[in-house]
Amino acid sequence: MNIRFLETFIWVARLRSFSSAADKLCTTQAAVSNRIATLEKDLGVRLFERDLRSVSLTPAGARVLAQAEMIVRMSNELRLGVGDTHHLRGRMAIGTIDTVVYAWLTRLVEEVKATYPDVDLDLTVDNSLTVARLLQDGQVDLALIAGPVLAPGCRNIELCAYDCLWVAAPRLGLQGRRVALEEVAAYPVFAFSRGSQPHQNVLHLLERAGLDPHLVRILNSNSLATITRLVRDGMGVAVLPETVVREMLERGELAVLDVAATVPPLKIHAVFREDPGAPLPAIIAQMAARIAAAKTEADKAEADKAEADHAAVHIK
């Protein structure tokens, strides 16, 4: 079976248009029609219902689409697995969030440039909701965000999960004891952008504790630098990923609060649209998964060593 014909079928199904698929594939509408006709003959089923304005999948076509996407993806992975990928070239847009920037984005950029020197990266840093919209609009090719993105054609790979901590400036005097959520909520609570996963987590905690979120001063920002600066200055409390605030905790600029309400981990996903013939997003997503896993292991080893050193000091 001709892989190119399957790719053509996938694009017609996604774009709901033979002419749009022809433009996407840099060919003619007649060529697209011939490929689909040949594929329908080979499979013995009608793949599309056609009218004057658009095309739509038949029930058989919908079943074939899932198999075709899998076959094309496996074909690309096989070709890349045995070939020389250093020849890959082009420009790829990555959208990500501050947490990834703080954690391991530099390592990813360095490895991409070392492995694929002819690939240029465009980076956009914003909140997860905005980056997800950019991905679906085709303005970024790969999203590294607090996901997943549950949209047709999007593939999600979970990369890592970061524990989130309640933190505040030591001068507020909230550390070193068990703190009720009501006491914490008396201060301004700095959170990520409105509607984001971390922001929703804070709202759910307040609601479960019987607090009215509308009466709590929740201050939203998509800038971690802004949030951490204001919290370090004693302007309020925040819930932030541990990987972001680790160095500030070590320097004593922030303190961890023992709040009687735990926040779910922040799960980071790589998200990209399955695009026949465009392997770069999938390749770099897998690279990100490996780098994120290595960073998680290194952080765990460092935390275990610090705990062991602390215990040894107490024993002495």
UniProtKB/TrEMBL annotation:
Lineage top rank: taxon: Bacteria
Record Pfam families: HTH_1, LysR_substrate
Span of domain HTH lysR-type: 1-58
Keywords, sorted A to Z: Coiled coil, DNA-binding, Transcription, Transcription regulation
Coiled-coil region(s): 284-311
Recorded family membership: Belongs to the LysR transcriptional regulatory family.
SUPFAM superfamilies: Periplasmic binding protein-like II, Winged helix' DNA-binding domain
UniProt protein name: LysR family transcriptional regulator
CDD domains found in the cross-reference section: PBP2_LTTR_substrate (cd05466)
